[in-house]
Amino acid sequence: MSRYHVLLMPGEGIGTEIVAEGERVLRAIAERYKIDVDISQHLVGEEQFKQSGRYLSVETETLCDELKTNPNAGILFGAVADEPIGILRKHYDLFTNLRPIRTFSAAADVSPLCSVREREIDLYIVRELVSGIYYGQMRHGSDAAGRWAGQELYYHETEVRRIVQQALQVAQQRRKRLHFVHKGNVIKDVFQIWLDVLHAEARRFPQVECHDILVDNMAMQMVLKPQYFDVLLACNTFGDILSDLGAGIVGSIGLLPSASLNAHGFGLFESVGGTAPDIAGQQKANPISTILSVAMLCRHTFGHEMAAQAIENAVNIALSQCRTADLAAEGYETVSTAGMGDRVLSALH
Ligand SMILES: NC(=O)c1ccc[n+]([C@@H]2O[C@H](COP(=O)([O-])OP(=O)(O)OC[C@H]3O[C@@H](n4cnc5c(N)ncnc54)[C@H](O)[C@@H]3O)[C@@H](O)[C@H]2O)c1
Ligand SMILES: CC(C)[C@H](C(=O)O)[C@@H](O)C(=O)O
Ligand SMILES: [Mg+2]
User: Fold this and answer.
1) Residue range 332-344, pLDDT digits in tens
2) Which of 31, 224, 253, 327 could form a disulfide with 273 if both were Cys (CB 3.0 to 4.6 A apart)?
């Protein structure tokens, strides 16, 4: 039997609150399905930085370095301010960022879009996560008229090919409709590489219907007819922005999980949202994004589809009974972060 490793990195802000609920679900599911998992806690972010001048301790970094080629290992992450998460993603080359965006049958009412209440949304963003503008070369200076600054958008064909292949594989396993989101009408050279690679790679996936769409139009279409879309392939920046748009159309970023994987299958699983300073420390955060990230961890790290689905079903049951503050609605009890964790756990049993 395989031994699995999960490193808990709650971070800061609501990270600690939502990871606490994720951990409870993780332990319960491991016990129920007899999954042999070693779970360890790690400080990351400001707190760790204050203590040691580093975002990760030497011990944590050594452990991650040992596990980074191990497909049976993963990080359950909370949230931090921008700097450390970008460093972690790059350091472990977590280039594939998977972001499912879906409504739950028991909670279709939480979407602000009326049409959604009749048919569920089931979108899947495949986002390139370790290149593009966010990692582009920075320059700045000043002249007589004022300051100037620039940050480069750069993609190498090899970086494009590996994420395109991932997206085609995801589409092949889903409803076989892929939209590549770009801005090739003005950022011509960079997106021509993406388009050329996509067309070449798509030949190996004849069942996948491939389209390309400009990002500004995509933003509008996602609101007008979200149910039409299946897999969206995007560069780092567009994937980031469309994820939050997706959160808006399904009702809350507190519902969105993610998985970021490297070529070996080592992964980091986290809520799409951040530290949420406006609600941190108040037990108001929705832990479902982290609980569903645990489901993704079960699927990708444990290879245990049944465990993943058991968590997703439990979330659906919990949402039919109660809501956290972000989704508060008449007819549903409003519960705290831990209260939602309790409901998911009791639905699991
Ligand atoms: N992966 C990460 O660690 C990550 C991701 C996104 C943002 N951030 C960082 O978080 C900080 C705050 O960023 P922001 O305010 O733009 O984005 P945010 O996602 O933290 O918050 C945006 C809004 O969504 C709400 N929200 C977020 N998660 C929620 C949850 N689980 N339940 C209920 N409501 C939730 C917040 O209350 C807020 O109103 C920044 O420093 C940013 O860089 C970190
Ligand atoms: C915190 C920030 C760097 C991060 C990103 O832009 O990738 C976040 O917004 C996300 O979506 O994971
Ligand atoms: Mg983001």
Assistant:
1) 999 999 999 999 9
2) 253
